[in-house]
Amino acid sequence: MAEDKQKRNELHQLDEETLFIVSQTFKALGDPTRIRILHLLAQKEHSVNEIAENLSLLQSTVSHQLRFLKNVRLVKYRREGTTLYYSMDDEHVMNVLEQTIHHAQHH
């Protein structure tokens, strides 16, 4: 009986890698600039220059934020010549973001 309880507790424990990924995901969603970038990419893929132009940001700022978002696997890119096109890479997180935006707009 005690063994069964211990096994159930182990199943409900979060491992360190999962905790790290979850905390980094919320960190990514906690920054207004990254939210703006993700919201834009939820509509369609964009190059760094297009993102910078659409959001009135410096290209270096966009590149820095995209690097962070790529590291936490929220965005991905494809190369076309010398241009990188970014798009969303995690539909679950994007759904959470869009639902949160919807919540904020109708609160």
Automatic annotation (TrEMBL):
Membrane spanning stretches: none
All copies of domain HTH arsR-type, residue ranges: 14-107
Pfam families membership: HTH_5
InterPro entries: ArsR-like_HTH (IPR011991), HTH_ArsR_DNA-bd_dom (IPR001845), Metal_resp_trans_reg (IPR051011), WH-like_DNA-bd_sf (IPR036388), WH_DNA-bd_sf (IPR036390)
Cell membrane listed as a keyword: no
Alphabetically ordered keywords of this record: DNA-binding, Transcription, Transcription regulation
PANTHER family from the UniProt entry: ARSENICAL RESISTANCE OPERON REPRESSOR ARSR-RELATED, HTH-TYPE TRANSCRIPTIONAL REPRESSOR CZRA
The protein's name: ArsR/SmtB family transcription factor
Organism phylogeny: Bacteria, Bacillati, Bacillota, Bacilli, Bacillales
